[in-house]
């Protein structure tokens, strides 16, 4: 897999935090991130027997939620370019009986190893903000989805409410970074706040999705506007 230098930096960052990623997310969000992810899965509208894609799957939270929805007749592909995140995801899958129908694929979201019109639904949890070319990522997602298929894309969102925006900034810069400091991961977690500043707001995400060819695009704010889910259909 050939990655540009920025993508390599991001992949290495998520390789480094893989061992503590899940537990820190639970602590730092008071396990609320699992609720936000479950909402995202529901918005992708999976059915039993579907073939689903979880893009930027990381340690597999959302892919495993999808697998429980589609059952043994279905199939979920969790895609990430971080081998250390995928190793955690693969380890977690061993603990399931009956086994979940999930395959972990090490690949670049900007160059997916799947044919056109392949997936019945897709999810992306906190991935779109981290890819280096958002329009290209949306075009790849459009390419691999079947006509009429839905995708739900969860990520941070800057609240419009000034008090909540200040709280989010304070929480990320003080609580999150200080927690990561104890694990020697200050730089990795300090990456989150500035990544939000570069990330398009909901209305711009809708515009980018329509430009990528999606027929419909709606952005829903959740968690008091601190998170958002872009729901798109091909
Ligand atoms: C899974 C979440 C965010 C994605 C994400 C998580 C990370 O650990 C990273 C580490 C390094 C780089 C990037 C990321 C990354 O994109 C959401 C849960 C974890 C958040 C760090 C928690 C932030 C919570 C809200 C800002 C405030 C929550 C208020 C609380 C419920 C009272
Ligand atoms: C914040 S984590 C989210 C992981 C998981 N979806 C979750 O909800 O916890 C972002 C993930 O995106 C992956 N990622 C970022 N850019 C990528 C790309 N171009 N191709 C594949 N994976 C990518 C990272 O390796 C990382 O595992």
TrEMBL record:
<dbReference type="Pfam" id="PF01209">
    <property type="entry name" value="Ubie_methyltran"/>
</dbReference>
<dbReference type="InterPro" id="IPR029063">
    <property type="entry name" value="SAM-dependent_MTases_sf"/>
</dbReference>
<dbReference type="InterPro" id="IPR023576">
    <property type="entry name" value="UbiE/COQ5_MeTrFase_CS"/>
</dbReference>
<comment type="pathway">
    <text>Cofactor biosynthesis; phylloquinone biosynthesis.</text>
</comment>
<keyword id="KW-0489">Methyltransferase</keyword>
<dbReference type="GO" id="GO:0042372">
    <property type="term" value="P:phylloquinone biosynthetic process"/>
</dbReference>
<keyword id="KW-0949">S-adenosyl-L-methionine</keyword>
<comment type="similarity">
    <text>Belongs to the class I-like SAM-binding methyltransferase superfamily. MenG/UbiE family.</text>
</comment>
<comment type="function">
    <text>Methyltransferase required for the conversion of 2-phytyl-1,4-beta-naphthoquinol to phylloquinol.</text>
</comment>
<keyword id="KW-0808">Transferase</keyword>
<dbReference type="InterPro" id="IPR032904">
    <property type="entry name" value="MenG"/>
</dbReference>
<dbReference type="InterPro" id="IPR004033">
    <property type="entry name" value="UbiE/COQ5_MeTrFase"/>
</dbReference>
<dbReference type="GO" id="GO:0032259">
    <property type="term" value="P:methylation"/>
</dbReference>
<dbReference type="GO" id="GO:0052624">
    <property type="term" value="F:2-phytyl-1,4-naphthoquinone methyltransferase activity"/>
</dbReference>
<protein>
    <recommendedName>
        <fullName>2-phytyl-1,4-naphtoquinone methyltransferase</fullName>
        <ecNumber>2.1.1.329</ecNumber>
    </recommendedName>
</protein>
């Amino acid at each position: 897999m050939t990655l540009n230098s920025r993508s390599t930096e991001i992949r290495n960052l998520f390789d480094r935090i893989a061992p503590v990623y899940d537990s820190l997310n639970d602590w730092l969000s008071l396990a609320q991130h699992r609720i936000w992810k479950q909402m995202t899965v529901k918005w992708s509208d999976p059915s039993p027997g579907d073939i689903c894609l979880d893009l930027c799957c990381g340690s597999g939270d959302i892919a495993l939620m999808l697998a429980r929805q589609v059952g043994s007749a279905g199939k979920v592909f969790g895609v990430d370019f971080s081998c250390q995140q995928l190793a955690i995801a693969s380890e977690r899958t061993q603990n399931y009986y009956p086994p979940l129908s999930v395959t972990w694929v090490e690949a670049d979201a900007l160059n997916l190893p799947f044919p056109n019109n392949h997936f019945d639904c897709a999810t992306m949890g906190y991935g779109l903000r981290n890819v280096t070319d958002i329009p290209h990522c949306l075009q790849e997602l459009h390419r691999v989805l079947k006509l009429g298929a839905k995708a739900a894309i969860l990520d941070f969102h800057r609240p419009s409410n000034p008090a909540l925006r200040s709280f989010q900034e304070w929480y990320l810069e003080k609580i999150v970074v200080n927690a990561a400091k104890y694990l020697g991961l200050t730089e990795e977690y300090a990456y989150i706040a500035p990544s939000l500043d570069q990330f398009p707001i909901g209305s711009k995400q809708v515009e980018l999705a329509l430009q990528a060819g999606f027929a419909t695009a709606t952005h829903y704010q959740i968690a008091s506007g601190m998170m958002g889910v872009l729901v798109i259909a091909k």
